[in-house]
Design brief:
A six-stranded parallel sheet has the order 9-8-4-17-18-19, sandwiched between helices. A five-stranded parallel sheet has the order 11-10-12-13-16, with helices on both faces. A four-stranded mixed sheet has the order 1-2-3-7, with no helix packed on it. It is of the alpha/beta class. It contains eleven helices and 19 strands. 30% of the residues lie in helices and 14% in strands.
């Protein structure tokens, strides 16, 4: 695919990130007004052009389809260009969404990186959230509705998405968290063959949780087990628990069992199955004015309970941010998305990650930047967990007010890189040929 100054030209027919323009962004094709004698009336429909001499052509607004129809001219607006040298990655809660609704600047930000910007550039992007409890397809449908823009599963990572790769390792697993049967559905879709929920165990033996009774719907959806034949090989906390007391009791029973056999007790308390959490965020952003506790708090509580009951330290494994494995997974997903959607085979030089939680988003991005082959640039917004007036525990490379400020900063920073290269070429300070 031919490129122009870091952009790959491609015709785009869908609403998602399939057009990240980079040619315009960094000095690619710009739109110029045709001569007046080629213009059709009425002229009042023709957009005006900024006449300031210090404004470059690459900063002119791309004509809308309505404006094009008002021009009786054989000239056509150049195709949008896709950025092939940088990309974006977003956290969701506190960055794009809060309390189930889009943050005011979020919709405009998504339009901006899909070409509705002064440079006509579209930037490939993915979503990397610690949230979960639903299939990636369902989460994408929710986000598409909230942002009024199509989001595809190929550009989306939940906290539990990397757990998909463990389905071949374990056959019978206990899956905890989420609403109703949704996490069971997710696990089965991932390929886990025998998925057990706390509801199944309570239905089979109701005195497992003395103060927790199943609702009629829960009872009907749960599956009765033959506990003598069940051996739980691993425990997966897919989403936030809706019943801390009951879930922790059942998890403790499994952890203190002999090889995951419910009803047994290990004399050494070290024969139970491993436990995995989809993320470790202690707090997260909701519609409440203060952050609410999340899965990381459940993990801390469970570790404290285990220590109190057994006298031993519980070893747990967490996915999600800031774990390096999650960022490596994101790197692979971003590469595949750029290739499938934009025909870009090489990795971006820079990935801008926008988050609201210093302890997971910023820490993970900064630490991954130390080992990644390309640059991972952390941007912190103040619309979620982190609030202005406080010092972030893990400092980002850039702090902005909201998601729109973040994407504008990223685009402008990349534009400056291109202009700097052009200026160096003009001054003879570089040996690399650059097409001007």
């Amino acid at each position: 695919m031919a490129t122009t100054e870091g952009f790959a030209t491609q015709k785009v027919n869908r609403l998602s990130s399939m057009d990240a323009e980079r040619a315009d962004l960094y000095g690619g094709p710009s739109v110029s007004m045709p001569p007046k004698h080629l213009m059709a009336s009425p002229l009042d429909k023709v957009p005006t052009i900024d006449s300031d001499s210090d404004r470059s052509q690459s900063e002119e607004d791309v004509l809308s389809s309505e404006d094009e129809q008002a021009l009786a001219t054989p000239m056509t607006v150049p195709q949008m260009t896709v950025s092939d040298d940088f990309a974006l990655a977003f956290d969701i809660d506190g960055v794009l969404i809060r309390g189930g609704e889009a943050i005011p600047e979020a919709v405009e930000a998504i339009k901006y990186i899909n070409g509705d910007n002064p440079y006509g550039v579209q930037v490939p992007y993915i979503f990397l959230t610690n949230g979960g409890g639903k299939t990636e397809k369902e989460r994408c449908q929710d986000l598409s509705r909230q942002l009024n823009y199509e989001v595809c599963p190929g550009q989306f990572i939940c906290g539990h998405t990397p757990m998909r790769e463990m389905a071949e390792r374990y056959e019978t697993v206990l899956v905890v968290g989420g609403e109703g049967e949704k996490c069971r559905i997710v696990a089965e879709e991932y390929g886990f063959r025998n998925v057990i929920t706390p509801g199944d165990i309570i239905k089979t033996r109701q005195d497992t949780t003395p103060f927790r009774k199943l609702t009629e719907e829960e009872y009907n959806n749960s599956r009765e087990l033959d506990l003598n034949k069940v051996r739980i090989e691993a425990i997966f906390v897919f989403a936030d628990s809706r019943d801390w007391a009951g879930d922790q009791q059942i998890i403790l029973d499994c952890l203190m069992s002999v090889d995951g056999q419910l009803g047994t007790r290990s004399a050494t308390f070290d024969q139970g199955p491993p436990i995995y959490f989809s993320h470790n965020d202690v707090v997260w952003s909701t519609s409440h004015e203060h952050s609410r506790i999340g899965m990381g708090a459940l993990r801390a509580s469970l570790e404290a309970l285990y220590q109190a009951v057994t006298g031993k330290e519980l070893k747990t494994v967490a996915f999600g941010k800031p774990q390096m494995g999650t960022f490596q997974f994101a790197t692979r997903l971003l590469g595949q998305w750029r290739k499938d959607s934009h025909g870009i085979a090489h990795p971006p030089s820079t990935v801008y990650f926008v988050g609201d939680t210093p302890e997971s988003d910023i820490r993970g991005t900064n630490e991954f930047n130390e080992i990644a082959e390309n640059e991972w640039y952390s941007i912190l917004v103040s619309t979620g967990v982190w609030q202005q007036g406080t010092i972030p525990r893990f400092p980002p490379k850039k702090i902005v007010g909201n998601i729109l400020d973040a994407v504008k900063f990223a685009v402008e920073r990349e534009q400056q890189k291109i202009h700097s290269k052009k200026n160096s070429a003009l001054l003879g300070q570089t040996d690399q040929p650059i097409n001007l």
